[in-house]
Amino acid sequence: MILRNSRIFPSASDTELLRSEFHVSRETIELFQIYADLLVEWQGKTNLVSTSSLTKVWRRHICDSVQCKIILSAKTKWLDIGSGAGFPGLVISILGRNESGFDVQLIESNKMKCAFLRKVIRETGAPAEVFPGRIESATKQYRDIEVVSARALASLEKLFELTSGWIEEGAVGLFPKGRDYLQELEKCRGRWEFDLLVHESRIEKNSVLLEIQKLEKIGT
Questions:
Q1: How far is the C-alpha of 86 from the C-alpha of 42, rounded, in Å?
Q2: Residue 113 pLDDT more than 70?
Q3: Burial of 148 (0-12, 13-18, 19+ CB in 10 A)
Q4: Tens digits of per-residue pLDDT, 148-194?
Q5: CA–CA distance from 100 to each of 90, 96, 113 (Å)?
Q6: How many CB atoms lie within 10 A of CB 151?
Q7: Tally of CB atoms within 10 A around 183
Q8: Which CATH architecture has domain 2-217?
Q9: Distance (Å, rounded) from C-alpha 55 to C-alpha 92?
Q10: What pLDDT does residue 45 have?
Q11: CA 65 to CA 202: how far, in whole Å?
Q12: Given 3-state DSSP classes, what are the helix, strand and coil percentages for the chain, each rounded to the nearest 5?
């Protein structure tokens, strides 16, 4: 991270990661810079990310979100719940902007955060739309979803409750989790049946991305 004139630029290692390992184009990195600049500007208006992680926005938030798209690169219909500052959904949308039919729906109940998301969408041309409401009220509105994602939103068991309708209809759940993910999985055992694929994070040691399919609540 490089801080200059209240703007946060990617470090050389962040740029190398994006360009060489993740194969992100120079043009897309420039759009991410617009995103990062807006995040810094709006952080003073509403709490988009923690103060400690703001200076690490490129590695902690942008690069971390990019790997979500890489894991499910063939999917084009995404739903991101509890989007907040747009991680990972808005990053995924920017990455997919040149793909035919690519679309990301962002669900966020906070009005100021919705305004921020719409501002970034306008400035970057990201193929995304914002649903300003609670997740529960959007359950019947969105169909034909291929991926439902959520980052730093809730426990895995709560995420299952929120997303089961979409995953039962064939969507893939993709949930980044920290080092306590095994405990969260254990709490779901005996209550839910599901297929699980664990992807190790390429950004943060001991963190993972949980890919969930065929989710079904036991006893229903």
A1: 13
A2: yes
A3: buried
A4: 999 989 999 999 999 999 999 999 999 999 999 999 999 999 999 99
A5: 17, 9, 28
A6: 24
A7: 11
A8: 3-Layer(aba) Sandwich (3.40)
A9: 21
A10: 86
A11: 11
A12: 40, 25, 35
